[in-house]
Amino acid sequence: MTGAKRRRRMEQLMLEAEGYPDRWFWLSFADPSRPRGSQFLGVSIVKARTYFEATMRAHALGINPGGEVLGYDYQELWGAPEPPEVHRHRLMSRLELVKAGYEEAAEPAQGRPN
Fold first, then answer.
1. pTM, whole model, 2 decimals?
2. Structural contact between residues 94 and 30, judged by C-beta atoms closer than 8 angstroms
3. Where are the domains of the chain?
4. 61-102, pLDDT tens digit by residue?
């Protein structure tokens, strides 16, 4: 995709997001080119209207470490309407996730980044 096409597509996605309510997204980052056991890069919990907007916001906030990203609705994933304030809009390591009570997310599993 050329730069101009990409820019137009991004603008279209941002326009489509208008009217959607803000919600929390759980963004899990991994780099599959790294050795097994070191592929997991962290999790960012970001408030946005859409998954696309959440990934853009994480990038703008400097909490997107690169690699691939999987995004989930925080409430659907954890059953809580929103994350604790201390976990918002920052990149959390595996150790921080365990300490915060997100043990399941910090464990490598099939279909999840490790």
1. 0.79
2. no
3. 20-106
4. 999 999 999 999 999 999 999 999 999 999 999 999 999 988
